[in-house]
Amino acid sequence: MRTSFLPFSTPSVSDEEIFAVADVLRSGWITTGPNCAKFEAAFASYCGAEGAVAVASATGGMHCVLQALEVGAGDEVITPSMTWVSTVNLICLLGATPVFADIDRDTLMVSRATVEPLITEKTKVIIPVHYAGAPVDMDPIRELATEHGIALIEDAAHAAGTEYKGERIGKKGTCIFSFHPIKNMTTAEGGMVCSDNSELLDKVKSLKFHGLGVDAFDRQIKGRTPQAQVIQPGYKYNLTDISAVLGLGQLERLDAFNTRRTELVTRYHEKLADLPEIQPLKFPAYPHTHAWHLFIVRLDIYKAGLERDAFMAALKEQNIGTGLHFRAVHLQKYYTETFGCHPGMLPETEWNSDRICSLPLCPSMQDSDVDDVVAAIKTVLKKG
Ligand SMILES: *Cc1c(COP(=O)(O)O)cnc(C)c1O
User: Fold this and answer.
1) In angstroms, what is the span from residue 65 Cα to ligand 1's centroid?
2) Are the C-beta atoms of residues 210 and 230 closer than 8 Å to each other?
3) Where would I find the beta strands (DSSP E) of the chain?
4) Domain holding 64: CATH number?
5) 84 in any annotated domain
6) Is the same domain home to 286 and 176?
7) Domain identity same for 46 and 190
8) Which of 122, 177, 217, 284 is most exposed, with minimal Cβ within 10 Å?
């Protein structure tokens, strides 16, 4: 058994990044400023996006985009239940109704087939989630949204570096990335909204900073009008320059991070191949590049003779950390009580919600760490 605990994920921060953060702290300008502007330009260029706005979190970015699209009472928003709760919480906080789409059993992603039957006169937005580093099959969903005149927001929190049919996620449409510490690149907390809709992006830029026409850096440093005007009441979701400079360093290393993630996952696939109790997700059938944000497996609870939560607890006893991405949102207390959601509504989501487990994966891991995880799994399954 491992003597030290292997966390599910640890951020990789280089000495250069630490020095760059210290330089910003000494510079006299630590909040949104020149480093944010550089980070936005660099991230947009990396994705091939027309424009990008840095925000304090992906959740804050989602809030601004939903607000910019004027989502509110009487509107329905289609989203998977297999997602992080933040999106669904925001839909509710804005007074709209979440409508949950089921997912493909083996990729955990929505498709035109699962979304289309849910469309009504009230549907305002569809929010597909690129899962674990793989892309959603966007072309059929884009066609569907265009046919019905419905807006699309891509949750790209797992998809920094992911490609769909030869193009990076972020190039087309409106995509929201997260730089939380477990994501493929980090700014401690932070996010990015990329969009090919410049009008929408201008609204997000204003909404993330009180709804003003210009931000504090523009006002004070560039010497624009001292009293900016509120265009529409907004929020306080700007990214600091401390975070942005860290993001610039991380972005330079993103491809190397993702290559290392891919190597580790290849090793997992090889080593787990002879364990029928453990079923990794499957690769999407369309052309893509996987960013391997998460390595998710499903526990065959009958073959294994134990439930997923017990499996995770047993791995922890073997000094192996795991994650759960995610517990189905629709079966959480608020959603069952408020919207009458119930078991049986979303069979594929619920099947996975009871079985998924994310194994340790981050670029700083050694090959031997993967071997330790597999050995611990064999011990837990009494195959050691
Ligand atoms: C992490 C995550 C978010 C939220 O990102 P924050 O930057 O923490 O707000 C949203 N959606 C998904 C699918 C995520 O994994």
Assistant:
1) 14
2) yes
3) 51-55, 76-80, 97-101, 123-126, 151-152, 154-155, 163-164, 167-168, 174-178, 191-195, 278-280, 288-289, 295-299, 356-359
4) 3.40.640.10
5) yes
6) no
7) yes
8) 122
**Which tens digits make up the pLDDT trace of 211-234?**
998 666 666 666 656 668 898 999
**Alpha carbons 236 and 288: distance in angstroms, whole number:** 35
pLDDT tens-digit readout, 183-197:
999 999 999 999 999
The pTM (predicted TM-score) of the whole model is 0.97
**CB-side exposure of 206: number of CA atoms within 13 Å?**
16
Whole-angstrom distance, CA of residue 34 vs CA of residue 337: 46
Residues lining ligand 1, Cβ inside 6 A: 57-59, 83-84, 86-87, 129, 155, 157-158, 178, 180, 191
What pLDDT does 304 receive? 97
Structural domain includes residue 7: no
Pick from 250, 270, 285: which residue ends a domain? 250
Distance 44 CA to ligand 1 centre (A): 19
pLDDT tens across 62-116, in order?
A: 999 999 999 999 999 999 999 999 999 999 999 999 999 999 999 999 999 999 9
Q: Which domain holds residue 331?
A: 255-383
Do 352 and 224 share a structural domain? no
